[in-house]
Specification:
Largest sheet: 7 strands, mixed
Number of strands: 21
Bound molecules: flavin-adenine dinucleotide
């Protein structure tokens, strides 16, 4: 005889665990299934091990989707303040590292521990290391065939995340399920991911490796003013991760290395006031010293400014305020924090996350075509969509 549950949730990640606790507290008999050997692996690796669990300034404008209004309802009903109350109730210490971005003071384990405790208190079961072989719709719900027997349920919630970091258990299972039940899956691509560079530029930038500096990067009418980090593989740091979600292959990036200055005005003024001064000297005053020296050498800006014609200064200034580079690509799903695209939200209820054609089938979290900016927004979506489905399933 197959075991019967009111609600089965596939995926013991951020969204699935939140959904499980919410449905469990409503008195539903809940089972969470995951093929991994541990729950919440991405929570543990998030935010450099400290989990940036929400963003106090999160608004729908912080999310990318083909259907931008979809996320509004769930985000409005479960806000960062709601999650913060949960964190406070469990006595977990946190800090605001950047404006609005809340991180655990000690460890991401604290957030996972909150979710597992809530699931336990709500009576939700979690079954790990369980492979799902087949899911079939029945007259009253769904029948799952797993490596350890069959399970029947009334409501089924798909919370198995996106394709990023396959080594952490990411699979395309959620997308396969969506297609099986006749839903459209919008094309997926890696987001919040470092850029790779063509060999020549990579070699030129090698001396800058390991240096971070604040920049303003723009691409496709979007821009982010945050630090950039040059790595031995390419360009990373918050500004690059943010813009990567908007970048398409072949697009150039415009990087303003001096976002608070007009290099043109500064250099023209410097040439008339201190003609013996150099570009290197100017850069050293505005950029991290090692970056300034290496960037200057890279462009061969030598000699005193008095030897620079107006057109030379225009050229130097354009490189500093609008350094145009064309990335070769991104590091892809191997290191991406998120997957853009996914289950088309036009086929889901924005209130409950249930599919419109089958009100007992739900999709939540990253598998859905809603992707946040860097800074705690993706977990906020996982919590909000998990609560939305858990309140209805
Ligand atoms: C390195 C890194 C750092 C990040 N840092 C942050 C951060 O600080 N702040 C932030 O907001 N976001 C961060 N993110 C993004 C965030 O982790 C995700 O958006 C979030 O975890 C999505 O939650 P989810 O529940 O939808 O999916 P996941 O958390 O990915 O959970 C999906 C679960 O489904 C399981 N699963 C997959 N396929 C199957 C299958 N076939 N059968 C059974 N189970 C399956 C997986 O094992 C996993 O447990 C980070 C991501 C990465 C990779």
């Amino acid at each position: 005889m197959a075991a019967h549950y009111d609600v089965v949730i596939i995926g013991a990640g951020a969204a699935g665990l939140m959904c499980a606790a919410t449905a469990g507290y409503r008195g539903r008999k809940v089972l969470v299934i995951d093929h991994a050997n541990k729950p919440g692996k991405k929570i543990l690796m998030s935010g450099g091990g400290r989990c940036n669990f929400t963003n106090l300034n999160s608004t729908p404008a912080n999310f990318l989707s083909d259907n931008p209004h979809f996320c509004i309802s769930a985000l409005k009903r479960y806000t960062p303040q709601h999650f913060l109350e949960l964190v406070d109730r469990h006595g977990v210490e946190y800090e605001e590292k950047a404006p609005g971005q809340l991180f655990c003071s000690h460890s991401a384990k604290d957030i996972l521990s909150i979710l597992l405790t809530e699931c336990e208190w709500a009576g939700a079961e979690i079954r790990l290391k369980t492979q799902i072989r087949n899911i079939a719709a029945t007259d009253s719900g769904y029948r799952l065939t797993t490596g350890s027997g069959s399970i029947n349920c009334d409501s089924l919630v798909i919370a198995c995340g996106g394709l990023s970091i396959p080594t952490m258990g990411a699979t395309g299972f959620g997308y396969d399920m969506a297609r099986q039940f006749g839903l459209t899956v919008l094309p997926t691509r890696a987001g919040l991911v470092p850029f790779t560079l063509h060999p020549e530029l990579k070699e030129q930038l090698a001396p800058l490796s390991g240096i971070s500096c604040p920049v303003d990067v723009s691409c496709r009418k979007e821009h982010f003013r945050e630090p950039m980090l040059v790595t031995h593989r390419g360009l990373s740091g918050p500004s690059m991760l943010q813009i990567s979600s908007f970048w398409q292959p072949g697009d150039p990036l415009a990087i303003n290395l001096l976002p608070t200055c007009s290099a043109r005005d500064d250099l023209l003024a410097l040439r008339s006031q201190k003609p013996q001064s150099t570009v290197a000297h100017y850069l050293a005053q505005h950029l991290p010293k090692r970056f300034a020296a290496a960037f200057n050498d890279l462009h061969g800006w030598t000699g005193p400014l008095q030897g620079y014609k107006n057109s030379d200064i225009e050229q130097v200034a354009a490189t500093l305020n609008q350094w145009a580079i064309k990335p070769a690509g991104t590091e892809g799903y191997r290191t991406a924090e998120v997957t853009l695209g996914g289950v088309d939200t036009r086929q889901l209820s924005s209130k409950t996350m249930a599919t419109l054609a089958r009100p007992s089938l739900y999709f939540i979290g990253e598998v859905v075509d809603v992707t946040g900016h860097l800074g705690g927004h993706n977990f906020q979506w996982a919590w909000a969509s998990g609560v939305a489905a858990g309140s209805d399933a």
